[in-house]
UniProtKB/TrEMBL annotation:
<feature type="domain" description="RapZ C-terminal">
    <location>
        <begin position="169"/>
        <end position="285"/>
    </location>
</feature>
<keyword id="KW-0342">GTP-binding</keyword>
<keyword id="KW-0547">Nucleotide-binding</keyword>
<dbReference type="InterPro" id="IPR053930">
    <property type="entry name" value="RapZ-like_N"/>
</dbReference>
<dbReference type="InterPro" id="IPR053931">
    <property type="entry name" value="RapZ_C"/>
</dbReference>
<dbReference type="InterPro" id="IPR027417">
    <property type="entry name" value="P-loop_NTPase"/>
</dbReference>
<keyword id="KW-0067">ATP-binding</keyword>
<protein>
    <submittedName>
        <fullName>RNase adapter RapZ</fullName>
    </submittedName>
</protein>
<dbReference type="GO" id="GO:0005524">
    <property type="term" value="F:ATP binding"/>
</dbReference>
<dbReference type="Pfam" id="PF03668">
    <property type="entry name" value="RapZ-like_N"/>
</dbReference>
<feature type="binding site">
    <location>
        <begin position="57"/>
        <end position="60"/>
    </location>
    <ligand>
        <name>GTP</name>
    </ligand>
</feature>
<feature type="domain" description="RapZ-like N-terminal">
    <location>
        <begin position="1"/>
        <end position="159"/>
    </location>
</feature>
<feature type="binding site">
    <location>
        <begin position="8"/>
        <end position="15"/>
    </location>
    <ligand>
        <name>ATP</name>
    </ligand>
</feature>
<dbReference type="Pfam" id="PF22740">
    <property type="entry name" value="PapZ_C"/>
</dbReference>
<dbReference type="InterPro" id="IPR005337">
    <property type="entry name" value="RapZ-like"/>
</dbReference>
<dbReference type="GO" id="GO:0005525">
    <property type="term" value="F:GTP binding"/>
</dbReference>
Length: 292
């Protein structure tokens, strides 16, 4: 089983790392007491999963001492286990907590003999957390995120976990401008400038998925030219969106009624990119969506 254990200082990016692994198909558990790690691996393995990602932090201080033992045992059992320890400078952590306005996890814990009404400062919490985690800092690969953007951290986590770039799902969606532009659209193309099959009474009841409408639009030079322009635009910029760690990209194509021209274009685009990408074609104004 592939196991990725993420630990480190709060605010250093553990949630970002865990989300990357979840998007890559890992069964993810956050804030797991280390003593429960072997039991979790067994239980998830019984369900047929072969990839687990677990985040452990200083809130489980009492059982952190058991973590090195659990890691060693799991490796001895043949599991492919990687440990990532995320850290950051105190200055960066203070800035991040200030930006998010979230409290430090240890600020809610009361130490023995401490006045429950008193609250430790953020810097005191960070210092205590470093002390609690110092024994396991060298258990795996240490990543200093002080100067890392979230996107760069995602890229590094993928590389360290041997994750190929998670496949981006490319949506081509037809719609009717008279109903409104889809809110989830990343790009919107207006194809109302090409001839409208609606004005041919024989084609009016059909859609852009029917052969007579397809033949009509295939014969229109403007439709062919616009289709090529959209293809080229998407093909040019798609690699950039993959590099940006996007999971989805929605290309919306609209005409007046969402029945003929936009449906035709979405189908043609889906068929073109289907050979190299994960593609879903959907027609908002039609009763059925099509997965390509």
């Amino acid at each position: 089983m592939h196991i990725v254990l993420i630990t480190g200082i709060s605010g250093s990016g553990k949630s970002v790392a865990l989300n990357v692994l979840e998007d890559a198909g890992y069964y993810c558990v956050d804030n797991l007491p280390p003593a429960l790690l072997p039991a979790l691996v067994y239980a998830v393995g019984e369900k047929g999963a072969d990839k687990i990602a677990v985040a452990v932090d200083a809130r489980s201080a009492e059982s952190l001492v058991e973590l090195p033992v659990s890691v060693r045992h799991l490796k001895e059992e043949g599991h492919n286990l990687k440990v990532m320890f995320l850290t950051s400078s105190t200055h960066s952590l203070v800035a991040r907590f200030s930006e998010t306005r979230r409290s430090h996890p240890l600020s809610h814990q009361v130490r023995p003999g401490e006045n429950p009404a008193s609250r430790r400062t953020l810097i005191e919490c960070i210092a205590e957390e470093r002390e609690r985690l110092s024994a396991i800092e060298n258990l795996g690969h240490v990543i200093d995120t002080s100067e890392l953007s979230a996107n760069k951290l995602r890229q590094w986590i993928k590389e360290l976990a041997d994750i190929e770039h998670a496949p981006l799902t490319l949506f081509f969606e037809s719609f009717a401008f008279k109903v409104g532009v889809p809110l989830d659209a990343d790009f919107v193309f207006d194809v109302r400038a090409i001839p409208n099959p609606y004005y041919d009474l024989a084609l009016r009841p059909l859609t852009g998925r029917d052969a007579p409408v397809i033949a009509f639009l295939d014969a229109q030079p403007s439709a062919t030219e616009m289709l090529e322009d959209i293809k080229n635009f998407v093909a040019k910029w798609l690699p950039s969106f993959k590099t940006d760690n996007r999971s989805y990209l929605t290309v919306a194509v609209g005409c007046t009624g969402g029945q003929h021209r936009s449906v035709y274009m979405a189908e043609r685009l889906g068929a073109y990119f289907n050979g190299t990408e994960r593609v879903i074609v959907r027609h908002r104004e039609q009763p059925k969506h099509v997965a390509v």
